[in-house]
Amino acid sequence: MPVEPTVLQDRYRNRGTAYTLEERAELGITGRLPAAVETLEGQANRAYAQLKQKSSDLQKYIYLNEIHDRNQVLYFKLLADHLDELLPVVYDPTVGDAIQQWSVDYRDSRAVYLSINRPEDVKVSFESLGLGADDVDLIVVSDAQEILGIGDWGVNGTDISIGKLAVYTAAAGIDPNRVIAVNLDVGTDNEQLLNSPPYLGNRHARVTGKRYDDFIALYLRTVSELFPNALLHFEDFGPSNARRILVENADKYRIFNDDMQGTGAIVMASVFSALKVTGARWSEQRLVVFGAGTAGTGMADQIHAAMVRDGATPAEAKSNIWLIDVHGLVTDDMVDLPDYQRAYARPKSEVSAWADGEIELLTTIKHVKPTILIGTSTVHNAFTEDVVRALAEGVDRPVLLPLSNPTSRIEVMPSNAITWSEGRALMAVGIPVGPVDYNGISYEIGQANNALLYPGLGLGTIVSGARHVTDGMLLAAAEAVAGQVDVSHPGASLLPPVANLRASSATVAVAVARAAAQDGVATKTHENLIQAVQDAMWQPVYPTSDVEHAK
C-alpha cells in the first residue's frame, strides 16, 4: 500500500524537525522525523552550512530550490538572513545558468503555464489554483523572449517569474502565499531548444502579430477579472512587445514592467544622487543612451518625464536626449525604426555634418557634451579611454552609468573610468564591484540593482491598493532609494547597498503609497502608513496556530 501523504509533503505548511512531539502526534506523523525538536533558527543554520558546501552558485541555486520545494518558511528564512550573499544566487546572474538547463533538470514547478495554442485553458488554469478574488496580491508573468542577457529561452524562462517573486518576498515581505508565477508559452525562436529532445515547451517559432496580441489581451482580461487587486508584473518580454504592451494597457490595468519602469527608476535614483553632488537641475541635463533597447528607452522615458516636471517642455526635454544603437546615432531617416526609438530619433538634417554615414558614440559625445551617459548595450569595453576622457572634457562631473551585466558585458570597469576621468565621473554600475582607490580617495561604486526598488514599489502598490502604477509612484520610489545615501563626502556611493534591502524596501513602500494617494489612485487609507507597511510584510516564521489547519 502506498504511504499516505502528510503535512511533511506540503511545502507551504511543513515545519520538518521543528514540530514538537505533541504536534507530531496530532498530525499523525509520529515516528516520521528524528527525535530532536529544532527551532527554525537551528534548521536555518544547518541548511546554510550545507549550502556553503556547494562548489558553484548553480549547485547552490538547485539546493535552495529543493528547500523551497519542501519548506517555504525555511527557504525564505535563509534568504532573509543572507540576502546580500544569496540574491545573486536566487536571481541574476545564476538564474540565467539554471534557465539554460531548465528542461533537462526539470523536477517540479510552482508556476502556471499558459500555451498560446490553447487559449481556452487560460481561465481554467487559474481557476484550478482554487484562489478567490481577494487571495492574490501579485502576479509575475514572462514570455521569456529577452531573458537577462541570454535571449529567448521559451518555457525554460519560467524560473525568471519564480525568481522575481522570491526577491519580492525576501526583500519586501510580499506574502508568498498570495502570489502567482506565470509563463506564457508562445513558442521560441531558439533553435537549440527546438532541436533539444528534453525541451518541455511548444515546438514552434514564436507567434507574433494579432494572434500574439490577442493572447496578451486575453491574459490581462482574465487575471484582472479573477484577481482584481493583483499587481500585474511583466518581465523579460522582447523589446518589440514590452513597451507597446505597457503603453497600451497602463491606463486599463494595474500593470508594471520592471525592465522598462523598474530599471528606469533605479537609474533615476542614481541621477537624483548625482544631482545632489553637482547642484544641477533635471531640466538642464543632456542624456546619451548607448544601447537603445527596451531598458535604455525606458530610462530615457523617465528622465524625459523628470525634465518636464522640472519645467522643460516635452519638446525641449526630447531635444536633450540622444539614443545610439548598433547602427549608430538614431536618426529619423533610418528604415524600420522600432516605435520605442522613433520618439527620440534625431532629425538627420541636425546631425548630417557630424560624420559621413553612421554617427558613432565618440563623435556624439564630442558634439553633445552629455551630462549623463548610460550604457545598456552589453558591448564590453565600449566606453573606451577616448570616450570617457571626451565625456569628462565636456562637463566637470559627468554621470556615467555602464549598466550592462555580467562583467564580461559591462561597457567600462569603474577602475578604468575613475582613472580616465581623473576621479570626476559619478558612477553606478550593473554589477557588484569593490571600491576604487584614486588619488587618496576611495570611491564606493553603487550597484544599480532593480531589487533596490521594485520590491518596495510592489509593496507600496499593494498597501495603497493603487489602481495604476503612476509616474509619480515611480518617481517617489527613486527618490526614496536616493534618500538612503549620503553623497556629501568625496567618493560616496550614489546608491545604497543591498545588505539592508528589507528596511530599504519598507522605506520605498511608504513613499510609493503616499504618492499613490497624492496621484488619486489609492483605494486604501491608513491611519499610520508606516505601521501599515510593517504589518503587511510577511515574516519567515512558523505560525503558532496552523497545526489545526495542517491536519
Overview features:
5-stranded parallel beta sheet; alpha/beta; 25 helices; about 550 residues
Please give a structural write-up.
By secondary structure, the chain is an alpha/beta fold. 44% of the residues lie in helices and 10% in strands. It contains 25 helices and 14 strands. The protein has helices at 21-27, 40-52, 57-70, 72-81, 83-90, 94-100, 102-105, 122-127, 158-172, 191-194, 209-226, 239-249, 258-278, 294-309, 314-318, 339-342, 348-351, 361-368, 385-394, 414-420, 454-464, 471-482, 501-518, 529-536, 547-550, and strands at 111-115, 138-142, 179-185, 231-234, 255-257, 287-290, 321-325, 328-329, 372-375, 399-402, 426-429, 436-438, 441-443, 446-447. The strands form three sheets. The protein has a seven-stranded mixed sheet, sandwiched between helices. A five-stranded parallel sheet has the order 1-3-2-4-5, with helices on both faces. Strands 12-13 form a two-stranded antiparallel sheet. Helix 21 (454-464) crosses helix 23 (501-518). The model has no long low-confidence stretch (mean pLDDT 94).
Spatial separation of the terminal alpha carbons: 21 Å
Sheet/helix structural class: alpha/beta
The multimeric state of the shown protein is single chain
Strands, count: 14
Strand order of the largest sheet: 8-7-6-9-10-11-14
Helix content: 40-55%
Low-confidence stretches: none
Outline, from the CA principal axes? globular
Instruction: Specify the number of helices.
Output: 25
Largest sheet: 7 strands, mixed
Rounded to an integer in angstroms, the radius of gyration calculated over CA atoms is 24 Å
**What percentage of amino acids are in beta strands?**
5-15%
Overall pLDDT score: 94
